[in-house]
Automatic annotation (TrEMBL):
<keyword id="KW-0539">Nucleus</keyword>
<dbReference type="GO" id="GO:0005730">
    <property type="term" value="C:nucleolus"/>
</dbReference>
<feature type="compositionally biased region" description="Basic and acidic residues">
    <location>
        <begin position="250"/>
        <end position="262"/>
    </location>
</feature>
<keyword id="KW-0597">Phosphoprotein</keyword>
<keyword id="KW-1017">Isopeptide bond</keyword>
<dbReference type="GO" id="GO:0003723">
    <property type="term" value="F:RNA binding"/>
</dbReference>
<dbReference type="InterPro" id="IPR016095">
    <property type="entry name" value="Ribosomal_uL1_3-a/b-sand"/>
</dbReference>
<feature type="region of interest" description="Disordered">
    <location>
        <begin position="250"/>
        <end position="305"/>
    </location>
</feature>
<keyword id="KW-0175">Coiled coil</keyword>
<dbReference type="GO" id="GO:0000502">
    <property type="term" value="C:proteasome complex"/>
</dbReference>
<comment type="similarity">
    <text>Belongs to the universal ribosomal protein uL1 family. Highly divergent.</text>
</comment>
<keyword id="KW-0007">Acetylation</keyword>
<feature type="compositionally biased region" description="Basic residues">
    <location>
        <begin position="295"/>
        <end position="305"/>
    </location>
</feature>
<protein>
    <recommendedName>
        <fullName>Ribosomal L1 domain-containing protein 1</fullName>
    </recommendedName>
</protein>
<dbReference type="InterPro" id="IPR023674">
    <property type="entry name" value="Ribosomal_uL1-like"/>
</dbReference>
<dbReference type="InterPro" id="IPR050257">
    <property type="entry name" value="eL8/uL1-like"/>
</dbReference>
<dbReference type="Pfam" id="PF00687">
    <property type="entry name" value="Ribosomal_L1"/>
</dbReference>
């Protein structure tokens, strides 16, 4: 047995017992038995609700032959009432046909009364697609959607008892899935064995299975959630500093716009009063090395004489 599951189951029952003793001392009435739920938190959000409950087997059943069961069948319902009497199935207290759901349980008050009258609802798998509209939203909110059974099997009692000794998984939209896994009248070992036996069936029906499971807790409707499993955080991606150069990054780097160099112009703008600076005179030498200006001055002197 998993140590963490065993510890959490034992601690949960101790908490329930302590709270019950406190309320009894204050003369407050409370139900002697409470359901224990397993809560699975997923990593990815589910946008689709699955309306057909999946059957999950248990080592120690939550429901027994004292459980009051309502069976929804095809018409006529009298045919299945006779079969149940012949098979000596005493835990099915009422058999309701589809036509009766449409007429007798049409109003909101009638549906609410039906919901609170029975612990478990079973239905013929041939009529399950009609039920969401006929039963209404309260059955979804209270998680009492009828579980499917095959009434065409020759041993109808065995099929119904198998359904009675199981729990049921409804997958709603969101990231949280809850399943009835035990009751507080059981000992902590029975609850722990139910969890260990059922968890593989539950996770197998969750999209992406264990890869999508973030955490698992157990609780009662009035208690805190006690953890029994938490997935490890995913490791960050490794960066290879000696790996190949990222060409796209290098190209983007080379294409960065550089700051343009502004060249100053030496030309004088139009309308300016400033005088342009005179260019430096260049001295040209003759082939013999005598400057041309000296030759001109000598020619002028000889002409005067």
């Amino acid at each position: 047995m998993n140590l963490q599951v065993s510890k959490a189951s034992k601690a949960l029952l101790k908490y329930v017992e302590a709270r019950r003793e406190k309320k009894e001392s204050n003369n407050l009435l409370e139900e002697s038995d409470e359901l224990v739920y397993i809560i699975i938190t997923t990593k990815k959000f589910s946008e689709k609700t699955v309306h057909k409950p999946s059957r999950i087997p248990l080592r120690h059943p939550i429901f027994d032959t004292d459980t009051e069961v309502c069976l929804i069948t095809k018409d006529p319902a009298s045919t299945y009432k006779e079969k149940l009497e012949e098979a000596n199935v005493g835990f099915v207290k009422e058999v309701v046909g589809i036509s009766e759901l449409r007429t007798k349980y049409k109003s909101y008050e009638a549906k609410r009364l039906l919901l609170t009258s029975y612990d478990l609802f079973l239905t013929d798998d041939r009529v399950v697609n009609f039920l969401p509209k006929l039963l209404g939203s309260k059955f979804f909110e209270k998680k009492k959607l009828p579980a499917m059974v095959n009434l065409t099997k020759p041993d109808i009692k065995k099929e119904l008892e198998k359904a009675l000794h199981s729990t049921y998984l409804n997958i709603p939209a969101g990231t949280c899935v809850s399943v009835k896994i035990g009751k507080t009248s059981q000992n902590y070992k029975d609850i722990a064995e139910n969890i260990e036996h059922a968890i593989s069936y539950i996770v197998d029906r969750i999209p992406r299975k264990w890869k999508n499971v973030q955490a698992i807790h157990i609780k009662t409707p009035e208690s805190l959630s006690l953890p029994i499993y938490n997935s490890l955080p995913e490791a960050p991606p490794k960066i290879d500093i000696n790996g190949p150069v990222n060409l796209k990054h290098e190209k983007a780097k080379s294409e960065e716009v550089k700051e343009p160099v502004v060249k100053k112009s030496i030309s004088t703008p139009k309308g300016s009063n400033e005088k342009a600076k005179p260019k430096k005179a260049t001295i040209t030498k003759s082939v013999t090395g005598t400057p041309a200006s000296a030759k001109r001055s000598r020619a002028k002197k000889s002409a005067r004489v």
